[in-house]
């Protein structure tokens, strides 16, 4: 019953206050009666009783504090009081809320992406036990199909294993083929993941009976709706993949898009039928590493135990296949980021961006700390009055903290709302149009929890700063008129330090953003071994029109000759994989005469390309020596190659390479007939890599990328190309884009880094402007009388500005210098984010200094005008 009465007190607080007053009055009356009985006069008895019981307000607070339910009521009263205080100061409230919304919103967005990429498991059953088998050699993260079969059969740590790879095919159903992205998967893929179809059925391992034995596909929900209008009768019908019939078995569930976080395929097909679709079989090629292998651990098995078991299996496989690999090794990684292809760079990048976002929030908190300190100083007289009438220092501090937490939660709510909208935008954003890439970063409970924690921390920490002022406030001294302002102005060293830290953080972030911009500029103008400007790219895979690798050559030659006849075209040629296009292959290369073709005996691993005559001219690649390929370099002619400078130096040192031979991994002897400049092949930040080029007729490849160089406008050359290619084969699907547009894939990381750092720099600049503006405005407002006296005594404008804004400008300069030094020291981190990033670039330093000067001018413009507009006569009359 006592508990129920305590909670009932929450709803009858007025009556409880009257009861407490009555109880106190009864005790005072009893004390008065006792004093009178002891011989005191009624006046002395009353005075003694009141002195003994002390301040009645304090006594009531002590009674309330002893009752938890009444303390909750006090908390509610503190919140209402904080709301009234904020309504009285809308400018203060709006400044704090917007400042926190910027800092918290940036952190929620970054954490949402970090959570989606690295923390949240795949959306499949048992995802926490799912691991990927990456190859142990750096730069070769995938497995071969024979190795997958052996690992699956011989390991004792995984309950099952499945393999998959990403690709595309031309899908048609009675019309022209359209490029559609796919997963080629092992037959047990869906069963291992525990996924159930929403329509029809999946294919299983029992459907496979050798190569080309399972002509089935499973549609994604998106393709089912977009191409087949969500018709359930599509199950059992047939579509063509690269002119080969495949039956539609079913439709995958709506939320399932495979086992890669970013890649959204349009259909799944059995891996055993890849030769039928692609004209090439890797199922028996142990050295062809192109598969992702994943599997769930058995109950009770740790990743370390599983890795040890796989290494033992790998050693056994190496002994059985000595010419395959030198010490086959396996690493277990988290699935979903294409092994370490994306997972390796993504982790440090996101960690660094999260650190920068926390720096923005720290700058916001420092800004708020200065604002709260100034607000507490302005309210010192109010606080002194409350202390003098009996309120405790703890009660005052609690109310100040409540006010800080209320406003911080409001800022956090606004920031989270903005961040949620940004995350939804990112989930529908397709950053690289030619690839089905989507970043699914919908906010979840973990994201919202981080937002709440950041909001509380951002409110409590700055709100604690006035505690020192509250604890040191002398009520008698604070009530004396004219002393508060002067004393505050002499004791602003803590605010100066906080503002200096904020300016330093701002300068650091601005330096980082400018380094990113300069790195992006360098990446666009870096020597790449080709000239994308002025070139049009026609991309197709001739297998989508039914051509094989061998039958594609005559059509490819007709395409080149027809494109060369277009008015204004200065060069045309084909390549099987575009440099920096996200594809390509590499071979192990040996010296002439090598008989033991193990990796340990190879000189290097070189990028390999098949090109036509005329490609080098069309691409703008400089031929440094020797000759280009001609149409006489036929399949039955001697095998020839063109290599780049790095290849020639690694193979022959400083000796001439033209006319020399080397041995390919297929035991073919190649004659070097030309040397070209080095280039970029996989990513912009790579070190010089060896590369070799082979004639189109000797390196048959149905994948065809036609490069056409012309001075014509892109729209005109695209229209002409479309007409001539359609005349050659109307069923052949192709895409036409300028070569600079095709660089969106390799430029995506530096562009994201530049945009992210630029946003962080802008947020930091906004916070710095508000911080300097707040300090300058506060200084001028508190010194109006002093400045008016200076003007009356004949002070010049320069002297007046020095007195009014000297301190803010000193803090700005000191903080800027510290931030620039931090930016220089952070060069290693910045270099990891963007291409050729260096804060020692003179343009970066000049730009950062100019930006900080501009911030200072913007922040002090209004306070300076107010100081210059002082009318001393009006101020003295007001006094």
UniProtKB/TrEMBL annotation:
<dbReference type="GO" id="GO:0005886">
    <property type="term" value="C:plasma membrane"/>
</dbReference>
<feature type="transmembrane region" description="Helical">
    <location>
        <begin position="497"/>
        <end position="517"/>
    </location>
</feature>
<dbReference type="GO" id="GO:0022857">
    <property type="term" value="F:transmembrane transporter activity"/>
</dbReference>
<feature type="transmembrane region" description="Helical">
    <location>
        <begin position="810"/>
        <end position="831"/>
    </location>
</feature>
<feature type="transmembrane region" description="Helical">
    <location>
        <begin position="92"/>
        <end position="114"/>
    </location>
</feature>
<dbReference type="InterPro" id="IPR025857">
    <property type="entry name" value="MacB_PCD"/>
</dbReference>
<feature type="transmembrane region" description="Helical">
    <location>
        <begin position="446"/>
        <end position="465"/>
    </location>
</feature>
<dbReference type="Pfam" id="PF02687">
    <property type="entry name" value="FtsX"/>
</dbReference>
<dbReference type="Pfam" id="PF12704">
    <property type="entry name" value="MacB_PCD"/>
</dbReference>
<keyword id="KW-0812">Transmembrane</keyword>
<feature type="transmembrane region" description="Helical">
    <location>
        <begin position="349"/>
        <end position="374"/>
    </location>
</feature>
<feature type="domain" description="MacB-like periplasmic core">
    <location>
        <begin position="564"/>
        <end position="700"/>
    </location>
</feature>
<feature type="transmembrane region" description="Helical">
    <location>
        <begin position="757"/>
        <end position="780"/>
    </location>
</feature>
<keyword id="KW-1133">Transmembrane helix</keyword>
<protein>
    <submittedName>
        <fullName>ABC transporter permease</fullName>
    </submittedName>
</protein>
<dbReference type="InterPro" id="IPR003838">
    <property type="entry name" value="ABC3_permease_C"/>
</dbReference>
<feature type="domain" description="ABC3 transporter permease C-terminal">
    <location>
        <begin position="759"/>
        <end position="872"/>
    </location>
</feature>
<keyword id="KW-0472">Membrane</keyword>
<dbReference type="InterPro" id="IPR017800">
    <property type="entry name" value="ADOP"/>
</dbReference>
<dbReference type="InterPro" id="IPR050250">
    <property type="entry name" value="Macrolide_Exporter_MacB"/>
</dbReference>
<keyword id="KW-1003">Cell membrane</keyword>
<comment type="similarity">
    <text>Belongs to the ABC-4 integral membrane protein family.</text>
</comment>
<feature type="transmembrane region" description="Helical">
    <location>
        <begin position="843"/>
        <end position="862"/>
    </location>
</feature>
<dbReference type="InterPro" id="IPR047928">
    <property type="entry name" value="Perm_prefix_1"/>
</dbReference>
<feature type="domain" description="ABC3 transporter permease C-terminal">
    <location>
        <begin position="356"/>
        <end position="470"/>
    </location>
</feature>
<feature type="domain" description="MacB-like periplasmic core">
    <location>
        <begin position="95"/>
        <end position="310"/>
    </location>
</feature>
<feature type="transmembrane region" description="Helical">
    <location>
        <begin position="400"/>
        <end position="426"/>
    </location>
</feature>
């Amino acid at each position: 019953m006592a508990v129920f009465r305590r909670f009932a007190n929450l709803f009858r607080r007025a009556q409880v206050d009257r009861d407490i007053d009555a109880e106190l009055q009864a005790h005072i009356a009893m004390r008065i009666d006792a004093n009178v009985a002891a011989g005191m006069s009624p006046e002395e008895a009353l005075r003694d009783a009141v002195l003994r019981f002390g301040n009645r307000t304090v006594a009531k607070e002590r009674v309330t504090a002893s009752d938890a339910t009444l303390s909750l009521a006090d908390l509610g009263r503190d919140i209402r009081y904080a709301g009234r205080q904020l309504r009285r100061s809308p400018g203060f409230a709006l400044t704090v809320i917007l400042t926190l919304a910027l800092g918290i919103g940036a952190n929620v967005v970054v954490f949402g992406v970090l959570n989606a990429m690295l923390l949240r498991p795949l959306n499949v059953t048992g995802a926490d036990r799912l691991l990927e088998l990456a190859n142990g050699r750096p730069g070769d993260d995938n497995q071969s199909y024979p190795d997958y079969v052996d690992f699956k059969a011989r390991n004792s740590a995984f309950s099952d294993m499945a393999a998959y790879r990403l690709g595309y095919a031309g899908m048609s159903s009675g019309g022209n083929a359209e490029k559609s992205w796919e997963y080629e998967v092992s037959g047990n893929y869906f069963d291992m993941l525990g996924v159930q179809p929403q329509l029809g059925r999946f294919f299983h391992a029992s459907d496979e009976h050798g190569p080309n034995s399972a002509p089935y596909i499973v549609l994604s929900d998106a393709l089912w709706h977009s191409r087949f209008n969500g018709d359930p009768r599509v199950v059992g019908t047939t579509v063509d993949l690269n002119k080969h019939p495949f039956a539609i078995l079913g439709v995958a569930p709506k939320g399932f898009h495979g086992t890669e976080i970013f890649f959204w395929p349009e259909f799944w097909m059995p891996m055993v039928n890849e030769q039928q679709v692609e004209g090439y079989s890797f199922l028996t090629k142990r050295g062809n590493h192109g598969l992702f292998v994943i599997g769930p651990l058995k109950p009770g098995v740790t990743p370390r135990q599983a890795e040890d078991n796989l290494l033992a299996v790998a050693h056994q496989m190496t002994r059985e296949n000595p010419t395959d690999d030198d010490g086959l090794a396996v690493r277990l990684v988290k699935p979903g980021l294409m092994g370490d292809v994306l997972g390796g760079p993504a982790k440090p990048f996101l960690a660094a961006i999260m650190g920068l976002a926390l720096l923005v929030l720290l700058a916001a908190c420092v800004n708020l700390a200065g604002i709260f300190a100034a607000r507490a100083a302005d309210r010192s007289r109010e606080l002194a009055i409350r202390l003098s009438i009996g309120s405790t220092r703890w009660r005052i501090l609690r109310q100040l903290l409540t006010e800080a937490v209320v406003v911080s939660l409001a800022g956090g709510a606004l920031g989270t709302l903005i961040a949620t909208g940004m995350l939804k935008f990112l989930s529908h954003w397709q950053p690289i149009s030619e690839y089905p890439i989507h970043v699914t970063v919908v906010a979840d409970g973990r994201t919202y929890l981080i937002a709440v924690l950041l909001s509380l921390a951002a409110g409590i920490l700055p709100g604690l700063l006035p505690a020192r002022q509250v604890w040191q406030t002398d009520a008698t001294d604070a009530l004396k008129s004219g002393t508060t302002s002067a004393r505050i102005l002499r004791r602003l060293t803590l605010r100066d330090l906080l503002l200096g830290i904020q300016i330093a953080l701002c300068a650091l972030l601005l330096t980082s953003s400018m380094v990113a911009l300069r790195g992006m500029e360098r990446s666009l103008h870096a020597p790449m071994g080709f000239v994308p400007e002025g070139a049009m790219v026609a991309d197709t895979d001739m297998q989508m029109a039914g051509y094989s690798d061998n039958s594609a050559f005559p059509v490819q030659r007709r395409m080149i000759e027809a494109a060369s006849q277009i008015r204004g075209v200065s060069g045309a040629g084909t390549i099987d994989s575009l440099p920096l296009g996200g594809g390509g292959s590499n071979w192990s290369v040996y010296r002439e005469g090598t008989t033991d073709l193990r990796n340990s005996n190879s000189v290097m691993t070189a990028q390999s390309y098949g090109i036509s005559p005329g490609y080098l001219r069309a691409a703008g690649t400089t031929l440094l020596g020797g000759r280009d390929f001609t149409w006489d370099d036929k399949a039955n002619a001697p095998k020839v190659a063109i290599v780049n400078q790095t290849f020639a130096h690694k193979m022959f040192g400083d000796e001439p390479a033209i006319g020399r031979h080397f041995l390919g991994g297929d035991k073919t002897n190649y004659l070097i007939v030309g040397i070209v400049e080095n280039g970029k092949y996989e990513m912009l930040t790579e070190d010089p890599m060896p590369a070799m080029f082979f004639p189109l007729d000797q390196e048959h490849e149905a994948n065809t990328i036609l490069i056409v160089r012309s001075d014509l406008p892109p729209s005109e050359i695209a229209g002409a190309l479309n007409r001539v290619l359609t005349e050659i084969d109307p069923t052949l699907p192709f895409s036409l884009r300028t070569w600079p547009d095709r660089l969106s894939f390799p430029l995506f990381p530096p562009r994201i880094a530049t945009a992210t750092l630029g946003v962080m720099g802008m947020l930091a600049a906004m916070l710095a402007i508000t911080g300097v503006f707040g300090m300058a405005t506060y200084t001028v407002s508190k010194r109006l009388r002093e400045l008016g006296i200076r003007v009356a005594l004949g002070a010049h404008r320069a002297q007046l500005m020095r007195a009014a804004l000297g301190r803010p400008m000193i803090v700005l300069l000191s903080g800027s210098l510290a931030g620039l030094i931090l930016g220089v020291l952070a060069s290693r981190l910045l270099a990891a984010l963007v291409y050729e990033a260096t804060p020692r670039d003179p343009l970066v330093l000049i730009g950062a200094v100019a930006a900080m000067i501009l911030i200072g001018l913007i922040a002090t413009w209004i306070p300076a005008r107010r100081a210059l507009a002082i009318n001393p006569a009006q101020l003295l009359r007001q006094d």
